Amino acid sequence: MQALTHGMELLPDSWMNITQPQLQDVCALLALETEFIDWRKFLLAAAQPWPPASKMDLLLTLERCREVDSSFSGRVARDQFDQVELWFTGQQELENPQDPDVPPIFDRQGKLKNAFYQIFADHKDSVSTLDYVDMLLYFAADPDPLEGFLRGLSLASNQPMPSSKSLVHLPQPMTDDYGGDVSVPQIQEPTSPPPEMDSLVTLENLMKVLHHGEGRLEDTYRLSLTTDPDDTFARERLAGVFLELGAEETEAVPFHLLYQHPIIQDCMHMCQRFKTLDLRNSFKSSSVDSFE
Question: From CA 206, how far away is CA 258, in angstroms rounded?
Answer without folding.
Answer: 11
